[in-house]
Every structure is written in C-alpha cells, then in structure tokens.
Write a structure and sequence with these properties.
Helix content: under 10%
Structural class: mainly beta
Strand content: over 45%
Number of domains: 1
Oligomer: single chain
Strand order of the largest sheet: 1-2-3-4-5-6-7-8-9-10-11-12-13-14-15-16
Distance between the termini: 35 Å
Mean pLDDT: 93
Shape: globular
Largest sheet: 16 strands, antiparallel, barrel
Number of strands: 16
CATH topology: Porin
Radius of gyration: 20 Å
Low-confidence stretches: none
Length: 301
C-alpha cells in the first residue's frame, strides 16, 4: 500500500478552529512518482495545493516537484485578504545529514496586485526530534526569493526569510529559544513593495499575549520583521510540563518607523496523543492584557 490519507483539527486562541487534510500516493500507477493533495482551512487562512513529485532523479540524489496552488489569507489586523493562485517547480537535494537545499521558480497571480514571478533558493538544517513541540535538537535555515520583470513579474522585489530554534536539556529542564527574521524590499526602491507583499504581525504566534491588532500589530504592515521566543520547560509526568517564557519582537518600515513589543508568562504543555495542548497566561508589556491562550494541535514554541 503506497497511499496515505490523514485529517486533523486544531484550535488556537488567535486563529480559531482549523482543519488540515492530506491525501497522497507515493507510487502513482507504479511509476515511482508521487501525487499529493493538501488542504488547510482556518478562520484566517485557506490553502490548497496539488504536487507531483519525482524523487528519483540523478540516482535518487535529486527530487523534482511541480505544484499548483491557491492561497487565501488575512493580512494582519487589516481585514484584507491576500488572494492568489499560481504554479511552481522546485529541485531539491539532501546535501548532508539533516541538511536539505532547494532552488525553484514560482509564478502567482495576486488579486489587486498583479503577477509575481519568483526565483527562490533555500537551505534548512534540522535535528529536532519532532515537528510539533520538540524536546531536543536544532533547526536553522534561510530562503531567498527574487522577483524580476525580466522573467515575467510585474514587480522587482527581494525577500529573505530566516529562522533559528534550538531545544536543549538543562538539568531537569528543557531550554527552548529561537526566532525568525523576514525582510522584503524593492530592487530599485526598497520601499516600493506592494501592500499584499509587505510583512504583517502574526499575533500570539509571534509574541504571546498580543492579538493581531496589539503591540507590533498596531503598526501594520512593515518591511522588516523580527521575533524571538525563549522558554524554560520543566517536565512533570505523562508528557505534561510547566514552563515560563519571554517573547519579544518588532516590525519596521525602511524609514525606521515601527514598534517593539515584549511579553512574559507561563503555562502548561501536554504532548498528548492528538498533538501538543497548551494553556498559557501571557502578560504583555504594553497594550491590553494579560491574556489566556489555548492551543490544541499546534505548538507555540
């Protein structure tokens, strides 16, 4: 049997309920090709994609994948949806143990913005023991994309996304720390970035205790976004832990205008059979708060 089907649900205080579905066939008609359908739906996002994958190029050293997708998502606290459809192709490889890299080309039609054609490349290193609520390991990576009128884009843009997270034992504790950085700019004029392609604050997924319209969300959108999250976890029993945390981040435009926000708090984490369940009490340094955050099926770390 080479077919797979999975469906899951999640809840987070900011995003509400979400549903994810995956349907896959790793040996389509005994050709060695893979066909995968993925859908995710929440109150803030609707994403659908179909991917055709050939993992056997160059004696299994390269993987070629083609994708058709549609993506609808709310932009921060603006109430405006970014709506796009597009196609893409990626060529990826395993460079070393735990290290993967890719190059690709993506074209998408963004409602009210126009066509964007991206050349993209990235690398990712990961030794984490599990994707959701890891207890050991490190993950670090970067992706760079360039959109240019020379290959069909209506805008000349560059975007960089980078991330780092590490999870390490510290006596009876587990120390978690990491963050993400993103920047987007016009190639001719750094500030010439369409509204739909600017960066938006991600609510408590970025800084616990802030909703989409609080803290950095009051300055929306921006061209540079950075967040950092640190927590100290104490496992108790049966997959249940308590933890304390400190989060910080900010969002800015190319003129330096923007905001910085921080929060502290603590909570309970249960790595349950259906995924991580978290209940946090977050105290933001400014704005409204404190705030109670509930997450089921998604991890805040």
């Amino acid at each position: 049997m080479t077919g797979t089907f999975s469906i899951g649900a999640s809840y987070r205080s900011d995003d509400g309920f979400g549903v994810n579905m995956h349907l896959g066939q790793s040996d389509l008609f005994h050709t060695g090709l893979g066909l995968y359908l993925d859908d995710s739906l929440s109150e803030r996002e609707l994403h659908s994609s179909m991917r055709l994958v050939d993992p056997h190029l160059a004696n299994d050293r390269l993987t070629l994948s083609g994708e058709i997708f549609s993506d609808y998502r709310l932009l921060g606290d603006t109430g405006i949806w970014r709506k796009s459809v597009g196609v893409g192709v990626d060529l990826s490889t395993t460079m070393a143990d735990h290290t993967h890299a890719f190059v690709g080309f993506r074209v998408e039609d963004v409602d009210t913005t126009g066509d964007l054609a991206w050349l993209r490349a990235g690398v990712d290193y990961s030794t984490v023991d599990q994707v959701a609520a890891p207890t050991r390991g490190t993950r670090v990576g970067v992706t760079v994309g360039v959109a240019d009128t020379a290959y069909g884009s209506d805008y000349d843009l560059m975007r960089i996304d980078a991330w780092l997270g590490t999870h390490q034992p510290l006596g009876p504790f587990i120390f978690h720390t990491g963050g993400r950085f993103a920047a987007v700019a016009g190639l001719q004029d750094p500030s010439a970035v369409p509204f739909t392609e600017q960066l938006f604050f991600g609510g408590s997924a970025d800084i616990r205790g802030f909703s989409f319209g609080d803290g950095p969300g009051t300055y929306s959108p921006g061209n540079v976004l950075g967040t950092w999250r640190t927590s100290l976890e104490l496992p108790i029993a049966g997959g249940v832990s308590v933890h304390g945390f400190w989060d910080a981040g900010g969002i800015f435009d190319w003129n330096g205008s923007g905001t910085i926000a921080q929060s502290v708090g603590g909570g309970v984490l249960w790595r349950s059979p259906i995924g991580p369940i978290t209940l946090d009490y977050a105290v933001p340094f400014v704005g409204d708060g404190p705030r109670i955050l509930l997450g089921i099926g998604k991890s805040f770390d």
